[in-house]
Amino acid sequence: MSNSLFRKKSLESIVKDSADGLSDGHGSSGLTKVLNVRDLTFMGIAAVVGAGIFSTIGAAAYDGGPGISLLFILTAVTCGFSALCYAEFASRVPIAGSAYTYAYVAFGEVVAWIIGWALILEYAIGNIVVAIAWSGYFNNLLLGFHIHLPGWMLIDPGTAKTAFLSAQHTLAQGGVLGESARAAIQTWNSAPVIGGRHIFMNIPAFIIVCIIAWITYIGIRESKKTTNFMVIFKIAVVILVIILGFFFVQPANWSPFLPNGFAGVLKGVSAVFYAYIGFDAISTTAEECTDAQRDLPKGMLYSLVICTILYILIALVLTGMVSYKELMVTDPLAFVFNRVNQKWIGYFISASAVVATTSVLLVFQLGQPRIWMSMSRDGLLPKAFGMIHRKYHTPWFSTIITGIIVAVPTLFMDSGLMTQLTSIGTLFAFVLVSWGVLVLPRSNRARGFKLPYVNGRYIVPVCYAAFIFLFRERLGTAFQQLSKAGLEEVLFLVYTVLATGFTVATVIRKYSVIPVLGVLFCAYLLIEIPAIAWEWFFVWMGIGLILYFFYGYRKSRLTAKQVRRDGAAEEGVGQKEKQNGPQVR
Q: Rounded to whole angstroms, how far apart are CA atoms 333 and 314?
């Protein structure tokens, strides 16, 4: 059974399956090839410049101070290693499916299923977070026009209840309610009551997801045009913010640069990395590119470089305009301009934030259906997930299901834990893609981008030695208290073992330094994510494996092929016995 779990698909068979299509006669050949380098670069920017730059960067700056710019550099370098590995895979495996397809070629079926299941965290669940953030920006924009939506239409039940109970506790202690506490009580009291329960739902988030699902349903051309327009607009806004912001920068706010040390900077890993998770969404559109082998690598790398420069400059502007201690807010860009008495810029930023997060929603809603389409081709999901619309040339059923999975939870879910889960799913994919480049047979090399080979025999051991030196105290504590170690320390020890193994293997096999560092950097960022998110991730993976063994393993096309081969072999033996008589065994 172990051999069948790790059975791999060759590049030739993947290309053939995608060309053959499904039972309805509409396979990948029905997809429209319209995307070029510019479109792919814009899609990457659309996915990266969104909720991170307009929202989560504030919390990260509060923890890390001005030094948060270093975390963007570290994250960009980490993503850069992974992007180069994605680029090589995109050239050699120019098929939709992203990391799922790459894992099927490099590691085998069960690993491909695991990564495909993890990618749901990145795309579908990640979009829930973005939709909730969009709702907040949209409400702020309406307030600028003196339009007030009822509070119960803008919040999830859990957050509403927590805020109400907190306000009630303050009153019981004789405290004075602030503006937000008074709003929480008003929201609770004004909410409709059905069956004795107060009703809360995030209506704007639900509506925007439905609109985005419709756009992605009717065609890739419409999605491309919408994305390109929004990207041009929001890049212009971000550049304007950077230019205007530098006029209000006070260099004294950059000191101390690392107020909480590098540990404080690393606290923002999930918030900052969440901003970068979208560049790999480009790879899901491989079969809609005019020349995937040439254009996909360029689109990934161009978008990553542009976004990194923008994020570093924004981080320096934010922490230079006000003290990092004031940035624990959900709308940091608007906040800093309000803080320097430039409210008109704050309103303008609220409008651009609505556009920015809309483009992120659009790109993610494009990505998830195409991964399911690839999984359906392989038999791991029902055939309906791979059906292509005859008129719109999109994976219509997968698009509808993605819309439902994202839209319904946005009505009642809180976004805090979802951000961390999304980061885990993405980093997990990055680790496997970087690792996969090392094990992918070199005979599969094709034209297009090829990962530069840099012998890691000496570089990787030096990096490993530096890691051991810098974290020697943590390692010593973890080993001494192994029996009492929490999940965070267990993960740290697992990472140390992984790093040791990769270092030894690199010395022996002379692995290229880029994919090895891609694995090690991404794996380290993984262990910095809080334990509670890991616990839910393990639950999610458990559910995924149950589905695989009950459906995917039995329905896999590789299983069907194996059964046909075994049947043909038995038939051949039977024919031979008829001709030669029964054989003595």
A: 9
Which residues make Cβ contacts (< 8 Å) with residue 216, sequence separation at least 6? Answer: 223, 362, 365, 366, 369, 394, 399
For residue 15, pLDDT over 70 is answered with no
How many angstroms separate the CA atoms of 548 and 559, rounded?
13
Rg (CA), the chain: 25
Rounded average pLDDT over 13-38: 58
Taking every pair of Cα atoms in the chain, the longest distance, rounded to a whole number of angstroms, is: 99
- The model's confidence at residue 499, banded by pLDDT at 50, 70 and 90, is very high
In this prediction, residue 305 carries a pLDDT of: 85
- How do beta strands 193-194 and 197-198 pair? antiparallel
Q: Are 415 and 158 in contact (CB under 8 A)?
A: no
Whole-number Å distance between alpha carbons of 569 and 440: 30
pLDDT at 542 (0 to 100): 92
Superfamily, domain 2-17+35-146+204-441: Amino acid/polyamine transporter I (1.20.1740.10)
Place 417 in a pLDDT band, splitting at 50, 70 and 90. Answer: low
Q: Is the pLDDT higher at 408 or at 346?
A: 408
Residue ranges of the chain assigned to CATH 1.20.1740.10: 2-17+35-146+204-441
Cβ neighbourhood burial of 169 (10 Å; 0-12, 13-18, 19+)? exposed
CA distance 370 to 284: 6
Average pLDDT over residues 517-525: 88
What's the rounded mean pLDDT across residues 500-523? 91
Closest CA to 449 of 9, 40, 20, 18: 40
Q: What backbone phi and psi angles, to 5 degrees, belong to 289?
A: -95, 145
